Task: inverse folding
């Protein structure tokens, strides 16, 4: 017998939770059964919209610790002392599938981190790949539509996938990573993470440098072979969710080293690659990884919905000392995430405990659906005021890196150039024979039902990256198509 009395959502004791109130033994149910009506009505509203992308995910709490001093590069307080610890939360995800879809599907993996710093939350919302498929945010909804279901058949549509890739060849670098076995990592613990975009580190004098985030798994990078990934899709669709949860439950806490690549703004102007193009990497031989710290995931959520489903990450959640760059994709994302959170979780999503900063929040935002923080009580709701309300700190450039910008307003498209084929080609040439074969077989398998016109267009892109890339995909296609 439990020592807790069941109550209604209103806190009233419940005499019977198993039998509805009826008029007579076989008579209809009565409206006055508040508990029944409330129970059904609440159940009817249990689902919130799933994330429009990255719907299937797993998360865990952890801790970040600084191991190397980079206070000469950034004034970010959470990085200002070796040994300093910051609580954090991580969520890993697939991109295209629905909330119930399989963990081992071929897809990039989301790698989202929330650091609860003394200067508010810093979110790094990256992937397990250092690059992305496109470099302009206007292409994102179209790209995602090709990864989702066909509007007529509600089936996955490989023709749409390869039609888009072949018409947007800037995607080739990410396509080459995705169809390698990195597209099917062996669980969330065994993959590296990347902030992918170029950001800025800003020091206390307002001087800044470009940088990129890297998170190196200490469990070793491990991928699944295609046959194993396909088998797990059927037999154990929650493979990665379970692996992360069980390892933490067993005290085997996964850890990642946190590193950065740093580049002077002046160097960026002369560099071989456009640092504002998220389809390109900075080769490590040019800009080696510098260690900063490490994070460890050491606590499973108590409640999946409250902590993982309601987690709201955004690249625009930034602390002083870390700033955005003019990367167009990143700029598009700065808008899109808080916008989708307002839709998915409501305007007060930052009041949900998992999203609440763990430092004081003082401002004049008030009210709206689901205000649960007391609305700042009787404090004034306007500023400036003469009632000791919070005031701006007047530190010029404290929340952004001063940067000179000039030019005409216009729609300046990135031209497709041979540059777009060099990095995918280099990546291909770096692969072992076995990896090359897996890559080309994975591509051919995916293209089996694709129209020939689209295949021919895509083969020309493989050829531009490396003639052997095309030859191998063609050979693999012959095998699957007969
Ligand atoms: C999730 C938009 C590019 C990584 C999302 C969500 C949206 C979105 C609307 C759902 C968020 C939610 O419901 O909480 C966009 C747009 C992009 C873009 C408009 C380009 C213009 C990228 C890129 C990366 C990325 C380049 C990685 C480098 C993620 C991750 C999540 C996510 C990790 C899941 C966050 C979580 O775990 O809650 N994106 N995205 N996205 N996106 Fe993007």
Result:
């Amino acid at each position: 017998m439990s020592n807790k009395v069941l109550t209604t959502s209103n806190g009233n004791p419940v005499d019977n939770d198993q039998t509805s109130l009826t008029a007579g033994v076989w008579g209809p149910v009565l409206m006055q059964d508040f508990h029944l009506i409330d129970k059904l009505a609440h159940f009817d509203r249990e689902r919130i919209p799933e994330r429009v992308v990255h719907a299937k995910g797993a998360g865990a709490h952890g801790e970040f610790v600084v191991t190397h001093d980079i206070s000469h590069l950034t004034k970010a307080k959470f990085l200002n002392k070796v040994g300093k610890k910051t609580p954090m939360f991580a969520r890993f995800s697939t991109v295209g599938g629905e909330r119930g879809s399989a963990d081992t599907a071929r897809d990039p993996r989301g790698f989202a981190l929330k650091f609860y710093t003394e200067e508010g939350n810093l979110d790094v919302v990256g992937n397990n790949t250092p690059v992305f498929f496109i470099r302009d945010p206007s292409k994102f909804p179209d790209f995602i539509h090709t990864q989702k279901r066909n509007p007529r058949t509600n089936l996955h549509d490989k023709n749409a996938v390869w039609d888009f890739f072949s018409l947007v060849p800037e995607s080739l670098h990410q396509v080459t990573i995705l169809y390698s076995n990195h597209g099917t990592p062996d669980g969330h613990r065994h993959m590296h993470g990347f902030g992918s975009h170029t950001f800025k580190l800003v020091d206390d004098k307002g001087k800044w440098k470009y940088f990129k985030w890297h998170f190196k798994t200490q469990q070793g990078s491990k991928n699944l072979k295609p046959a194993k990934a396909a088998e797990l899709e059927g037999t154990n669709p929650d493979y990665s969710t379970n692996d992360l949860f069980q390892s933490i439950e067993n005290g085997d806490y996964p850890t990642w080293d946190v590193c950065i690549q740093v580049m002077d703004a002046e160097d960026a102007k002369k560099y071989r690659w456009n640092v504002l193009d998220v389809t390109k990497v900075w080769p490590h031989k040019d800009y080696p990884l510098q260690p900063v710290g490490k994070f460890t995931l050491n606590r499973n959520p108590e409640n999946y919905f409250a902590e993982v489903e309601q987690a709201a990450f955004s690249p625009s959640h930034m602390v002083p000392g870390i700033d955005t760059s003019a990367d167009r994709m990143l700029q598009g994302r700065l808008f899109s995430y808080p916008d989708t959170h307002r839709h998915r979780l409501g305007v007060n999503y930052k009041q949900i405990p998992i999203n609440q900063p763990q430092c004081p929040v003082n401002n004049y935002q008030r009210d709206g659906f689901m205000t649960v923080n007391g609305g700042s009580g009787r404090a004034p709701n306007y500023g400036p005021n003469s009632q000791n309300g919070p005031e701006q700190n007047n530190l010029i450039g404290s929340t952004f890196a001063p940067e000179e910008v000039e030019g005409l307003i216009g729609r300046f498209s990135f031209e497709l150039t041979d540059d777009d084929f060099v990095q995918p080609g280099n990546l291909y040439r770096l692969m072992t024979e076995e990896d090359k074969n897996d890559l080309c077989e994975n591509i051919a398998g995916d293209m089996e039902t694709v129209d020939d016109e689209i295949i021919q267009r895509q083969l020309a892109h493989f050829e531009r990256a490396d003639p052997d890339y095309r030859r191998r995909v063609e050979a693999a296609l012959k095998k699957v198509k007969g």
Observations:
- The chain has 13 helices and ten strands.
